[in-house]
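Below is the data:
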Amino acid sequence: MNTDTTRIFTQLQAIAGKFEELSIRITLPEVINDSELFRRLMQEHSDLSELAGFAKQYIQLVDEIEDVKEMAASDEQDIALMAKDELEELNRRLEEMNEEAVIRLLPKDPDDRRNAIIEIRAGAGGDEAGLFAAELLRMYAHYAASKGWKTEMIQGGDTELGGVKEAIMLIQGKNVFERLRFESGVHRVQRVPVTESNGKLQTSTATVAVLPEAEDVEIKIDPNDLKIDTYRASGAGGQHVNRTDSAVRITHLPTGLVVTSQDQRSQIQNRERAMQVLKSRLYELEKEKADSEYSSQRKSQVGSGDRSERIRTYNFPQGRVTDHRIGLTLYKINDVMNGDLDEIIDKLLLARQAELMEAQN
C-alpha cells in the first residue's frame, strides 16, 4: 500500500474497531441502566454507523487486493495473467474509494445531525419586507416537505398584508441543521412590490437565523432565571386566540433573551415551544463562547451563517437567484421560491468540504 492508502486504511480500521466496541458496550447491563450514558453511546453508535459501513467495505477491498497480488505472483502463467487483470480493476476501485474516504473522514460538526429552529424576520423595506419574509417561510416549509421533514410553527406574527414580522419554525428530520445551517444571514429581494403603484423596483431584506435544536441534557436552566408572562394571542389560529391567555413570553434574565410562542392551542404547549427555542439560543451562545476558532471561521468563503452577512439576492425581474458566498447564480427563481433548494445547498456543502480539506493540508 502507498502512504495515502496506508493512512486511510489505519483511520478506517480504527473507526470500524470503535464501532464494534460501541456495539458491544450498548448491550451491557451497566450501560443500559444508566439512561444518560446509554443515550450518549447510542447516539455515537448511530453517528458512526454509516462511516463504519464504508470502513468495512474499504478494508475488505484492501484485503482482496493483497490476496490478488499473491495470485499475480504465481508461477502459473494463466493464473498470474487473470490476477493482473483483476488487480487493475481493484486498484481503480481503490482510487475511487480513497477520494471518497478523504471527504468522509473530514471532521464532522456534531450539530449537523440535529433538528433546526429557523427564525425569519422582516428587515428593511416596510410591508414588502414582511411579504418577502412570509415567502421565505413558505420556501423553507416546501423544502422541508420535499425532504420528508416535519415542520411546526412556534411563532407567526402576521402583518395586515399577509406578510410576517417574525416567524419561528421547528424543522425535525435527519441532518436538518447540516443542510440548512448556511441559510443564516441577510436575504435580499429585488422586485416591484405589490404595494408600489408607479412600478418602481425596490430592494428589501429579511434576516434568517438557523439554530441547532438543543437537547434537554445539554442546557440546564434555573427556573429563578426566568420571567414568564402570558397574554392573549393575536392573528390566525382559531377563535381560541381571542378568548384565552394562551400566548407565552419567556425572558431569560441573565442574558436578556426574550422568546415568545403563540401558535400552539394551549398555554402549556406554547410554554414548551418557547423553552425549546430559548434552550437552542442559549446553546448557540455557549458554543460561540467556548469555540473561538468557530467564531473566526465566520469570515471564510461560505461563512458560518452570521446574520450580518448578505448571503443571497432574489431578483424577480431577471428571474435569478444569486448566492454571493460561492458566486452561484441560478435562473430559476420560481423553482427556488417553491422549495427547490438542493442545488444551492449541495454547492454550499461542497464549498465547506473544500475549505475543510484545505485547512487540513
